[in-house]
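Hi Prof. W.,

I finally got the Methyltransferase prediction working! I wasn't sure whether to trim anything, so I left the full sequence exactly as given:
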Amino acid sequence: MLTVDFSRFPLAPGDRVLDLGCGAGRHAFECYRRGARVVALDRNGEEIREVAKWFAAMKEAGEAPAGATATAMEGDALALPFPDDSFDVVIISEVMEHIPDDKGVLAEMVRVLRPGGRIAVTVPRYGPEKVCWALSDAYHEVEGGHIRIYRADELLAKMREAGLRPYGTHHAHALHSPYWWLKCAFGVDNDKALPVRAYHKLLVWDIMKKPLATRLAERALNPLVGKSFVAYATKPHTPAQGEA
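And this is what came out:
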């Protein structure tokens, strides 16, 4: 299940890609399939080991084209172990809401992104996220949990302040918002509640089968209740007037 829309965020074979805070690796895997030279980085060593295993399995199965490479590594988003201008593309999906120093993370991403490079940032959308917070303290009051809710204009302003030029936005995963509302209402860790189990089965069916009806429904509902807000930006070749 991809949050970044690669029809709006073009990726060319050979592009150097950093998937920052890669988690289970969903975007890194897609970039690898598209022929990129991918680095998947996360602070969670267990997840990184799993991502590395999947990269190896994809290579063995021939899922990535010739020339594509993939590396999984542990690292700190506030101190990236790469030189300036190392990447053509940076993706950070559902990560910034967890990090106290989000401006520091943006600064590091801009540093390692080459001039003219592209960045995709996704965060939980303000409205659906507010509902989750209202329904459940356990949803966000946990170690490593969500510490802020972004308004779209706030995130875009921080991206501009970091020296990026946003060029597009959209919302994604409308069908997932009701699932998280149910989770919060019945207990975030209570997967046995009948409504939660039933809706989860629906989502799994939708992800596996990709029926046209639910694709059309989600496309219509995304502007209203899309779970994620997605912003795309470029790093200027030279600082824009008024930028530091």
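The helical segments are 26-33, 45-61, 102-112, 126-135, 152-161, 176-186, 194-209, 212-225. Does that look reasonable to you?

Thanks,
D.
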